[in-house]
Amino acid sequence: MCRWLAYSGEPIQPARLILDTENSLVAQSLNSPLGAETVNGDGFGVGWYPAGASVGTEPWLFHSIEPAWHDENLRELTRAIESPLFFAHVRAAAGPPIQQTNCHPFRHENWLFMHNGGLAGFASVRRDLMLAIDESFFPLIRGTTDSEVLFYLALTLGLRDDPIAGMTKAIRKVEEVGHAHGVEFPMQGTVAVADGATVWAFRYSSAGRTRTLFHSVDMATLQQMYPDSERLQGFGRAARVIVSEPLTDMPGVFVEVPEATVAILDAGHYRHETFFAEPE
Amino acid sequence: MCRWLAYSGEPIQPARLILDTENSLVAQSLNSPLGAETVNGDGFGVGWYPAGASVGTEPWLFHSIEPAWHDENLRELTRAIESPLFFAHVRAAAGPPIQQTNCHPFRHENWLFMHNGGLAGFASVRRDLMLAIDESFFPLIRGTTDSEVLFYLALTLGLRDDPIAGMTKAIRKVEEVGHAHGVEFPMQGTVAVADGATVWAFRYSSAGRTRTLFHSVDMATLQQMYPDSERLQGFGRAARVIVSEPLTDMPGVFVEVPEATVAILDAGHYRHETFFAEPE
Amino acid sequence: MCRWLAYSGEPIQPARLILDTENSLVAQSLNSPLGAETVNGDGFGVGWYPAGASVGTEPWLFHSIEPAWHDENLRELTRAIESPLFFAHVRAAAGPPIQQTNCHPFRHENWLFMHNGGLAGFASVRRDLMLAIDESFFPLIRGTTDSEVLFYLALTLGLRDDPIAGMTKAIRKVEEVGHAHGVEFPMQGTVAVADGATVWAFRYSSAGRTRTLFHSVDMATLQQMYPDSERLQGFGRAARVIVSEPLTDMPGVFVEVPEATVAILDAGHYRHETFFAEPE
Amino acid sequence: MCRWLAYSGEPIQPARLILDTENSLVAQSLNSPLGAETVNGDGFGVGWYPAGASVGTEPWLFHSIEPAWHDENLRELTRAIESPLFFAHVRAAAGPPIQQTNCHPFRHENWLFMHNGGLAGFASVRRDLMLAIDESFFPLIRGTTDSEVLFYLALTLGLRDDPIAGMTKAIRKVEEVGHAHGVEFPMQGTVAVADGATVWAFRYSSAGRTRTLFHSVDMATLQQMYPDSERLQGFGRAARVIVSEPLTDMPGVFVEVPEATVAILDAGHYRHETFFAEPE
Predict the structure, then answer these.
(1) How far apart are CA D164 and CA C139, in angstroms?
(2) Which residues on chain D are in Cβ contact (under 8 Å) with C98?
(3) Spatial distance between the Cα atoms of B253 and B247, rounded to a whole number of angstroms
(4) Residue among B63, B73, B100 minimizing CB distance to C62
(5) Neighbouring chains of B at 3+ CB pairs within 8 Å?
(6) What is the reported pLDDT for C278?
(7) Which residues on chain A are in Cβ contact (under 8 Å) with B97?
(8) Cα dist. A148→A105, A107, A154, A170, A222 in Å?
(9) Burial, C20: exposed, middle or buried (Cβ in 10 Å; 0-12, 13-18, 19+)?
(10) For residues B120 and C113, what is the distance between their CA atoms, to the nearest angstrom?
């Protein structure tokens, strides 16, 4: 019910991906061809790690409840900064409240988290899931979204030590609680997690039909494929972007991340792993 | 670049037309099939005359820069009040600024005004048009829209004495100034004006291809046509609505107002007049 | 950390108390002489029952995160409506988030609730208090305030059957949980509750030093005392207002509600009862 | 009717002056001891030049209509960036509209401008002053403030070629038009202007009683005076700040800029000049 992108590579102005491409994230906020909703106008957010920061540095956040498409602060900010790793998210809410505390990405220490999708029957499972969150995290929950609960659940279950294991346990918990409340397919979504160095992009849904997820291919290859594309030539060799839907329809730029997979992006290299094997 | 509706009839909760119909104004804010833009998410406004008010009573206004679709205050307000004559408008801005002073309807004394369309080349003609506005009105201009300038121009040129003559002169001025600045087709739009008793709905563009405009037909007729429609049976006999696009696709409910026409709605009766004959 | 007022009596435009008096609630939002904070600029809210409504009718709400002092919608709305029973609240937040879901009054069915004060050490007790809330109410909690939690706790503990007993049990729970977390004085505040007919105004704090609370005296008496006051003569005989601090410094208009007391306002009659006797 | 500060020196996080000092600008937004208004809660703005930028680089802007004191984006942004020259402003509006286009600082090309004070009788002189603005600037006026009009008037009258001459002519025009409309003391205020290298801070009012203006003294001297002040020791030798009112009450840190004076701050050096000699 949202659109997002995650960039990793040489430091760039986030506007280059958020605003200045064909099917940029802001263009998607008005009209997303592959989205469950066409319009993603219920606020947005950007989270970014500073250039040259050491491991463990906290990222910065900008959240707004305005639609992204005419927001002037977004235009200024995403040109004023440069970042080697940033997340951006435009929200399509199922309903009110529209408030900054419901805007992605969410942050905890040096971790960023964002989500496109939803926890089915969230009103009925919210209490049980919040109880499963560690007491120390409980006061940090500030919004009403399923996504924020999922983040703190994953933090509770070890995200910081092992993101894939943490997410696996969190989703297992979501499914267990959902099933206990009669929800057939509790989990739906693509999730991005970063620690400042690595990005993990998960695609999974209980029903096996998750919202789309793509990532760009190797930039050196792209630059050879499109020698005349000024835009592509302007990126560094390590530049990679993971997205809800392609930012361009130039053939060969984006590849789909398969269902039930996590794409791990580390220093310009991707690795795919099967995600969420059946509970033993 | 917007969608609007104007209601006149027995006092009703505005929510019945703004929220609770098939293709309600709020539904159109997310997806307007006949609009120049699909999304009208750049703020909204409601202006309403109180029930039982004497002629000359000032209407009330509610303006917001949030998209209408998830706005909770809009839901409360449009059920909390009842009004025999109200305007509602959802905005699709060509660009920033998104601010309450750019939200329609505009009010002056007992007059309401709203507009869907635009003055071509507005940046170049804005100064000359503002100079043509009476000095006493000048300090009242608070936003940056062409629509507000058109309103004060029409007030300057006699709207309050004769709405059709005032609008004619205002549009003539817009075309004259536009042509002087090399704009081929200066005026585009549908405009609604009310004084608390009568509604005037204008459809005119310099190029002869104005955004759509419709009004509902006689309610007694409709209630005979659709004896099983609870919604229609719930309206009073004087209920009439003028709209950018039909609120329903039930055949026969809405008729189109022709190009270069003003529809005058008075105590449950419509009259169409040719609008904007060539300047003599 | 806030200022509020509750009116009951003949239907009036809320603006008469919120905007048009010497030390009106909006004046207090900029400068409240008796407040714990001088400025109450972190949003506001109005909740009102419609005139002529039957018992059990839901009140309407208007919430905004803007400061009240220059809000144009507040000016419009509080003149456009008339109400025989309304609450208004201006907020001084201890910190972010500033969001509509944190604006008072809160509503559940035909009940309104607002609060000035705070639950000490709320971050540490929030989880235990939320667990004490009935599962059916849990999904309705949308903000991050202690006040909203107190409301749902009171609803859980019988507010709707017996408001005084419900509030007593809720505060007892707050103190019990607070003490268990090492908070010496868990409860602080004045609380207003209404069901559409009666207003209950509570003043209690664990430390015995609660924020101020006042109510106006009998209007017939006031009108005799001040025969030349146009403002007072304009009110009906049943008009009563309960406030965080007096709306005027005219002697004799307001009397203080004592510490550990609930003032019950019913059809123009007040009754004071000692509130919160020691747990047996 | 506002408070502002301008920093020039080694690049720093703006938060150090906007948030992290005793009487920081955000502290002043809630309570400004020397301000005409105590509360400056009607929006705020930051304008900053990037570190290492060449002459003529456009500064970036962040504007918000929320009060500064609890704004989370302000906290993030002013720590995420570093700037060698920035302006910050908290607004106390005389009335609505509260909108981003009324937030200072204003920008044109590489110029920043902000203002504390007002043009007396602005409603009556607005039209004549807007007519005195060059036609090419007219479409750029987006808000309703006297300050924005003063900026474009000064741009029209040569600000970019000679800031002091441009401001002199602009104020002369303001006084001439004001007097023609029967305004005795048309100009009031302190104004800051920057081009990316130099800051000009003007203090002038027609009545000779302008709002306060201060600047910090030589940082090397301050660091000798206060060897134990960690905060002062943390600044570079070129650090200078010009402010509506002192950020600290440590003796000797701030000196007042006299009435009818312009303080010119250039590469760590101040120069005072008499401003606005009588028209010849």
Answers:
(1) 61
(2) 66, 70
(3) 9
(4) B73
(5) A, C, D
(6) 57
(7) 72
(8) 9, 10, 10, 12, 36
(9) middle
(10) 51
Q: What would the 3-class secondary structure string for D130-157 be? A: HHCCCCCCHHHCCCCCHHHHHHHHHHHC
Cis peptide before D105 (omega within 30 of 0): yes
DSSP secondary-structure letter at A140? G
Please choose, from the candidates A149, A125, A124, the residue with its C-alpha nearest in 3D space to the C-alpha of residue A138. A149
Alpha-carbon distance of D149 to D191, in angstroms, equals 13
What is d(CA B97, CA D100) in angstroms, rounded to the nearest whole number? 8
CA A225 to chain centre: 28
C-alpha distance from D70 to closest chain C C-alpha (Å): 6
What are the pLDDT digits (tens) for D233-253?
A: 999 999 999 999 999 989 999
Task: Compute the distance between CA of residue A81 and CA of residue A50 in angstroms, rounded to an integer.
Answer: 8
> Which of D101, D119, D128, D148 to mutate to test binding with chain B, by most B CBs within 10 Å of its CB?
D101
The dihedrals phi and psi of C204, each to the nearest 5 degrees, come to -160, 140
Tell me which residues of chain C have a C-beta less than 8 Å from any C-beta of chain A. 97, 99-101, 123-124, 126-127, 130-131, 135, 138-139, 142, 144
Phi-psi category of residue D76: left, alpha or beta, with phi > 0 → left and psi -120 to 50 → alpha: alpha
- Is the pLDDT score of B278 beyond 70? no
| Percent of all residues in chain D with a pLDDT value above 90, rounded to a whole number | 88
Nearest CA in chain C to A97: C101
Question: For residue A239, which of A86, A105, A62 has the smallest C-alpha distance?
Answer: A86
In whole angstroms, what separates CA C75 from the centre of its chain?
Answer: 20
Q: What is the mean pLDDT of residues D266-271?
A: 89
Q: What is the pLDDT of residues B207-222, one digit of tens each?
A: 999 999 999 999 999 9
| Min Cα–Cα distance to chain A from C279, Å | 29
- Residue spans of alpha helices (H) in chain A: 15-18, 25-30, 72-80, 122-131, 146-156, 163-180, 219-225, 230-233
Q: Which residue of C has its CA nearest to B63?
A: C73
How far apart, in whole angstroms, are the C-alpha atoms of residue B195 and residue B53? Answer: 12
Q: Name the token pair of B103.
A: 């939200």
Q: What angle do CA A146, A152, A154 make, to 5 degrees?
A: 100
pLDDT tens sequence for chain A (280 residues): 699 999 999 999 999 999 998 889 999 998 888 877 789 999 999 999 999 888 899 999 999 999 999 999 999 999 999 999 999 999 999 889 999 999 999 999 999 999 999 999 999 999 999 999 999 999 999 999 999 999 999 999 999 999 999 999 999 999 999 999 999 999 999 999 999 999 999 999 999 999 999 999 999 999 999 999 999 999 999 999 999 999 998 999 999 999 999 999 998 899 999 997 555 4
Q: Which residue has the tokens 């709207």?
A: B159
Q: Where are the domains of chain D?
A: 2-274
SS3 A79: helix
CA distance B91 to B106: 13
**Hey, is C262 helix, strand or coil?**
strand
| β pairing state of C83-91 and C106-108 | unpaired
- CATH fold of B2-274 reads Glutamine Phosphoribosylpyrophosphate, subunit 1, domain 1 (3.60.20)
Contacts of C29 (CB under 8 A, 6+ apart): C3, C39, C40, C41, C44, C67, C68, C69, C90
Torsional class of B202: left (φ above 0), alpha (ψ -120 to 50), beta (otherwise)? beta
Query: Beta strands A106-108 and A254-256: pairing type?
Result: unpaired
CA distance A232 to C108: 55
In this prediction, residue A280 carries a pLDDT of 41
**D42 vs C70: CB contact, 8 Å cut-off?**
yes
Check if the beta carbon of residue A64 is closer than 8 Å to that of residue A43.
Answer: yes
Residues of chain C found within 8 Å of residue D96, distances taken between Cβ atoms: 70-72
